[in-house]
């Protein structure tokens, strides 16, 4: 069987060999798209980083680079507020506050290379 396909605006003539002649094959039927809002996720909100049980110390979840630090010591932060941005393998990871508090200390700065489990920030 000969087919013509187009990839990136360029047409190609191809030969296709049918290995099985199955007449019972039908095009799969997909359910209609869901138009309403998606259900809430069943997992807790992620705050990036590896926070201790009290939400006071954040350690790096990955090896990478600190792109930007958005807070400084003694700054008040709200739950969910962006604290810093990390990059690993061209993907960005937001580190956000798990709870309201004040930044006790920041252990890294923009441009720093970080290791897995390295202390990043402390919140009181």
The 3D shape can be described as elongated
Level-1 CATH class name of the domain at 50-123:
Mainly Beta
Q: Architecture of the domain at 50-123, according to CATH?
A: Beta Barrel
Topology as a string of helices (H) and strands (E): EEEEEEEEEEE
Helical content, roughly?
under 10%
Radius of gyration: 25 Å
Number of helices: 0
- Which stretches are poorly predicted, pLDDT < 50 over at least 5 residues? 38-46
The strand count comes to 11
CATH level 3 topology of the domain at 50-123:
OB fold (Dihydrolipoamide Acetyltransferase, E2P)
Distance between the amino and carboxyl termini: 70 Å
Output the structural class.
mainly beta
Topology at a glance:
Elements: E1 2-7, E2 10-15, E3 50-51, E4 57-59, E5 64-69, E6 76-77, E7 82-88, E8 91-96, E9 101-106, E10 113-114, E11 119-123
Antiparallel strand pairs: 1-2, 3-4, 4-11, 5-7, 5-10, 6-9, 7-8, 9-11
Structure, described:
The structure is a single chain. Strand 7 and strand 8 (91-96) form a beta hairpin. The strands form three sheets. The protein has a five-stranded antiparallel β-sheet with strand order 3-4-11-9-6, with no helix packed on it. It has a four-stranded antiparallel β-sheet with strand order 8-7-5-10, with no helix packed on it. It is elongated, with a radius of gyration of 25 Å. It has strands spanning 2-7, 10-15, 50-51, 57-59, 64-69, 76-77, 82-88, 91-96, 101-106, 113-114, 119-123. Helices cover 0% and strands 41% of the residues. It is built from no helices and eleven strands. The protein has 124 residues and is an all-beta fold.
């Amino acid at each position: 069987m000969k087919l013509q396909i187009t990839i990136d605006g360029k047409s190609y003539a191809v030969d296709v060999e049918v290995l099985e002649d199955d007449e019972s094959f039908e095009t799969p039927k997909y359910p209609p798209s869901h138009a309403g809002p998606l259900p809430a996720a069943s997992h807790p909100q992620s705050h990036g980083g590896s926070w201790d049980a009290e939400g006071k110390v954040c350690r790096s979840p990955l090896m990478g680079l600190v792109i930007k630090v958005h807070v400084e010591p003694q700054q008040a932060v709200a739950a969910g507020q962006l604290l810093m941005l990390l990059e690993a393998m061209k993907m960005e990871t937001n580190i956000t506050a798990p709870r309201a508090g004040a930044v006790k200390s920041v252990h890294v700065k923009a441009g720093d290379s970080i290791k897995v489990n390295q202390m990043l920030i402390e919140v009181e």
